TrEMBL record:
Native organism taxonomy: Eukaryota, Metazoa, Chordata, Craniata, Vertebrata
UniProt gene name: Qnr71
Gene Ontology biological process: cell adhesion
An example molecular function term from Gene Ontology annotations: integrin binding
UniProt xrefs under InterPro entries: PKAT (IPR045219), PKAT_KLD (IPR046846)
Protein name, as recorded: QNR71 protein
Residue ranges of domain PKAT KLD in the record: 71-121
């Protein structure tokens, strides 16, 4: 049970009762408890502000490269994960995670390779020790060109 303390301290007291099945005795424990809550600012928002296809040479034609320019608000991320899925965003095809270093402003460019032309759902997640935030986009990759 809990109740107010009888002395000048306004902290609640805790009285714990335990049954002892062998002797029928009760053990009483009195004391004070306290707790603290640390509020940390997490990554509040992620936005994909630009998607740019990177021109490749003939020998690299099998992989289309796309740069995603991403911004965020709140605390600075320490890692980025990209999940490439089918156009319905239901079936995941590939996931890539990398540590990142963002020192001042949350503005970063993420380069990803696409093995074949098609339409993809992209989920970009920025994270740190206490939070994660996600942005999604549909992208059409056409043999080295994206829209």
């Amino acid at each position: 049970t809990t109740g107010p303390s009888s002395d000048s301290d306004s902290s609640p007291t805790v009285e714990s009762v335990e049954d002892n099945p062998d002797g029928g005795c009760h053990i009483y424990r009195n004391g004070y408890y306290g707790s603290s809550i640390d509020v940390v600012e997490g990554i509040l928002e992620v936005n994909i502000i630009q998607m740019t296809s990177i021109q490749t040479t003939e020998s690299q034609a099998e992989n289309s490269l796309v740069d995603f320019v991403v911004t965020c608000q709140g605390s600075l991320p320490t890692d980025v994960c990209t999940v490439v899925s089918d156009p319905t965003c239901q079936v995941s095809k590939r996931m890539v995670c990398d540590p990142i270093v963002v020192t001042d402003e949350c503005l970063l460019t993420i380069r990803r390779a696409f093995e074949e032309p098609g339409t993809y759902c992209i989920n970009i997640t920025l994270g740190d020790d206490t939070s994660q935030a996600l942005a999604s986009a549909l992208i059409s990759v056409n043999g080295g060109e994206s829209t």
